[in-house]
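Fig. S4 source data, part A: sequence.
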Amino acid sequence: MNKKDLQKAENRLWSKLHKTDTADPLYDQLLNDLQIINELGKRTSLLNNPQIVSVVGYLAGILIILAYERTNVITTKAFGFIPRINGKG
């Protein structure tokens, strides 16, 4: 389920929730469903995070350099590609 589908489902649940009486047992079920939708939204947003893509790219580059250096012995330069933690890298 992508983020757009989750948003549509959340909007439908909110619409039903506003039309349902708080004493109705369906009200509690709708609240529970909304909570589940919100949790799913948080999980999927982590997978789309550009920082994860950046880290994977850096690691792939380092592994390629290290694999090359394993076959051709030269001084390692792979760790120079790691960005500085303070963000100035």
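Fig. S4 source data, part B ends here. The radius of gyration is 23 Å.
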